[in-house]
Write a structure and sequence with these properties.
Length: 139
């Protein structure tokens, strides 16, 4: 009983992270424009934590025989499930708006050897250019 109470308290303290902390794309930027990096959340950690909590409360609701525990667990599972769904939807919308096709590649750094400097150990960079999907030309 103590372990179940501790689990419930810890899940309640960590619950609703997606509703409270996951930011979607800003409303003041038109829908056809890219949003700048850092203006919204692209990590799915918080929605996943809410989904795990919703699953744990759902299992508790399905396996317990006490009516009060079943009702409370079912309500908490529904709330965490809604929070998780909202967080995943905001993250997806943010990623779609941040990495729109035709826009600049914001998270990629291309490494080119400088003239007059010896190439790396194996003869040159092996980083693929994401715009052309081929290795940079050798000099």
């Amino acid at each position: 009983m103590l372990a179940r109470s501790l689990l419930t308290c810890s899940l309640l303290l960590l619950s609703g992270c997606s509703l409270a902390l996951v930011k979607g794309p800003p409303d003041f930027i038109p829908a056809e424009e890219q949003v700048p990096m850092g203006s919204c959340t692209i990590e799915r950690v918080m929605p996943m934590a809410d989904a795990i909590g919703a699953g744990a409360f759902l299992v508790a609701a399905l396996t317990d025989s006490n009516g009060d525990v079943v009702r409370i667990s079912a309500v908490l599972a529904g709330g965490l499930g809604f929070s998780s769904y909202t967080g995943f939807r905001r993250v997806k919308s943010c990623k779609e708006r941040m990495f729109m096709p035709g826009g600049p590649v914001l998270d990629t750094v291309l490494i080119q050897p400088l003239d007059g400097i010896a190439p790396p150990l194996f003869g040159g960079p092996l980083i693929v250019d994401p715009l052309s999907n081929r290795l940079p030309p050798r000099k």
